[in-house]
Amino acid sequence: MLVSYQQLDDLGVIRIDNPPVNALSQGVREGICDAVKLAQGDGTKAIVVVCEGRTFIAGADINEFGKPMQEPTLPQVNAALESLTKPVIAAIHGTALGGGFELALSCHYRCALTSASVGLPEVTLGLLPGAGGTQRLPRLIGVKAALDMMTTGKKINATEALDLGVLDRVFDGDLTRCAMEYARELITEGARPRQIRDLSIPNDSFDKDSFESYRGQLNKRKRGQEAPQKIVSCVEAAMGMPFKEGLAFERSRFMECVKSEQSAALRHIFFAERQAPRVPGIDKSVTPRVVQRIGIIGAGTMGGGIAMSFANAGIPVTLLDSSEEGLEKGIALIGKNYGVSVSKGKLSEHQAMEREALITGAVDYGKLADVDLVIEAVFESMDVKRQVFSRLDEVCKQGAILATNTSYLDVNEIAASTSRPQDVVGLHFFSPANVMRLLEVVKAESTSDEVVATAMALGKRIGKVPVLAGVCYGFIGNRMLRQYAREAQLCMIEGAEPAQIDSVLMNFGMAMGPLSVGDLAGLDIGYKARQALTEKQKGDPRSYCIADALVELGRLGQKAGAGYYKYDPETRARSTDPVVLDVIREQARKYGVQRRALSDEEILNRHLLALINEGFRILDEGIAQRAGDIDVVYVHGYGFPAYRGGPMFYAGQRGLVNVLKEIERLYEDTGEPYWAPATLLKKLVAEDLTLNDWIGVNG
Ligand code: 3HC
Ligand code: NAI
């Protein structure tokens, strides 16, 4: 029974029980409507709406989008609740999200546990609140606060919600009992049904210009996304139209969103993120090891950020560096980063102090004797890593997990430098590690299932999205990135300027263009890595000669004030530098490249198709478990626009047959082996299959 109705003396209780998150599937909607009919006809004086399980309603059932809509719709359910002629009280615990919060807004009063929160996260799924949220929330809390909540999708906690007037009462204790006491208080006071639909928004609270400037801000903040702009239109409608018309306006925009490619892409990412940590073949009988204390080796850029990720989740860390100086620098940077969070109001001073206190510095490996898991983040050199792992093998207790944060190196070889390769795994964090959500969990040949399960569970515990990867040069993300970065270099030498390449990819929706990313990371990193390679390993010189020449001119990127661009020392604003254009032309001459104008379309296609073709190879080899995992990697680790669903989803949207044709054309035109179409792509097209139909080597 998804919804039950019970009369308890003078109160009626509508109880929703649809695990795991009480999503508003068709059966729930129908059940609520039936309960409303019972409630209307009996002798009760007030109605409480409450949920079983871990949370209040988490929204519409996302699985139902894209299928024919079945009645009753959520707006119909909400209208029925709102029209009840006795007070209806929503009793919230956990999170009231999306349609769940909209349902609560259709109740006449709202109470919650102090631990609860509410929000309208539809925008993160490429949707807008489509069950009255855009019409009711501005009436309740004003236009600006409502727009902020709906366009960011951020939750607010019960205390903030109480201050804003979203909630009427908060309490600790047993939710149903407290909510029923509150309902009885309302009956005693003679409280009447109180419909938000009857409130009006003061016309002068947000004028036409304010809407225009809000839209402009959103164009920057939510570049390329349709739903946020539609939310603004709906709120404008709430001000200009009677409630009923406003609702119809909202519903039509909502249906447009549901059908949009952007929403399909974001829904794909929603489910892919949740599927990624699951590893077929590792059954539920495999229990993750207990991890209570972490060791980190190397207090540099990555070590510091990784330490913060654990401290932020309340897990104590011993941070070790080879020198006192390196350690002090690392600890000071962590302190500075927490200071910035305090100054931005993201953390209280107390919280920052508590987190910092969880990180203890060390230079003596003996301090790692009792850690449950240690992550190595020292220089990217196999010799150094092998030394570190053999030392860890000596000092760490039996059963401790030994992880490496290497970006490219062979985890099998690292594991072989210990006597316990079954306990060795790659944990590849992304920079800045305390911010980026992606975690590649690299399973080496001998890594045990128990260790993989522990890594997945731990990744989730610290708020990351863990994705399983196999061992190869660069794992999933960096292996694909090499192909993408090569196209940026080739497009430059063939005729495009850095600004054209960056703007094409930014317009597609990437968080940054490839050359700006290079300047931010520092061009010396790739340069140094190349120095360790043979000419053969480095590959075609046209794919790195410009970068090398810039480094040799001292143009190391943003930190040097110059790289592919020049940077204003004060504002850091970037501009095109004629020196760079000279370097590009000179390298083209050196390698006999005839420069030509490249169209934006060619630049975009080459970058994306390079990613996609390599993605198919990775999938075919079983380096990634699923196409969705590759998408999660690219969205969370490399700034690929979530509203395009990741490179593999995007390939599916373009049509695999079209993608194959374009790759074949590039192969014919260039003769370059890397443009040879991936076998799996050819197979899927030949058999007329989609990526969803394909069950990979791990599946
Ligand atoms: N519909 C269908 N399934 C949902 C769902 C939803 N709204 N929300 C969560 N689930 C599923 C997840 O897919 C997952 O399933 P799985 O176990 O098979 O993988 C399961 O519920 C548990 O979800 P999480 O792993 O995310 O659990 P957490 O405890 O970490 O988080 C949560 C719980 C905060 C509720 C989180 O699931 C969440 O944010 N859900 C989405 C909320 C949302 O976006 N709501 C808006 C929906 S659109 C809408 O309401 C339109 C309306 O305006 C008309
Ligand atoms: P870094 O140079 O900033 O820091 C390395 C730290 O390790 C330094 O503090 C150094 O003193 C310390 N160290 C060196 N040898 C040591 C040893 N034997 N014992 C203890 N400490 C030692 O390097 P960064 O950027 O933090 O990279 C670390 C690792 O993380 C590398 O393997 C790198 O490939 C990987 N990585 C780097 C990313 C980045 O964006 N910087 C992203 C993801 C992975």
From TrEMBL:
Checking InterPro entries in the record gives:
3-OHacyl-CoA_DH_NAD-bd, 3HC_DH_C, 6-PGluconate_DH-like_C_sf, ClpP/crotonase-like_dom_sf, Enoyl-CoA_hyd/isom_CS, Enoyl-CoA_hydra/iso, NAD(P)-bd_dom_sf
Q: Copy the pathway line from the protein's UniProt record.
A: Lipid metabolism; fatty acid beta-oxidation
Q: Where is the 3-hydroxyacyl-CoA dehydrogenase C-terminal domain?
A: 474-567, 603-687
Please, one GO biological process term? fatty acid beta-oxidation
The organism's place on the tree of life at top rank: Bacteria
Q: Which GO terms describe its molecular function?
A: (3S)-3-hydroxyacyl-CoA dehydrogenase (NAD+) activity; enoyl-CoA hydratase activity; isomerase activity; NAD+ binding
Keyword annotations of the record? Fatty acid metabolism, Isomerase, Lipid degradation, Lipid metabolism, Lyase, Multifunctional enzyme, NAD, Oxidoreductase, Peroxisome
Subcellular location per UniProt equals: Peroxisome
Q: Which residues form the 3-hydroxyacyl-CoA dehydrogenase NAD binding domain?
A: 294-469
What reaction gets catalysed by this protein? a (3S)-3-hydroxyacyl-CoA + NAD(+) = a 3-oxoacyl-CoA + NADH + H(+)
Q: Which family does it belong to?
A: In the N-terminal section; belongs to the enoyl-CoA hydratase/isomerase family.
Q: What is this protein called?
A: 3-hydroxyacyl-CoA dehydrogenase
The organism named in the record is: Vreelandella aquamarina
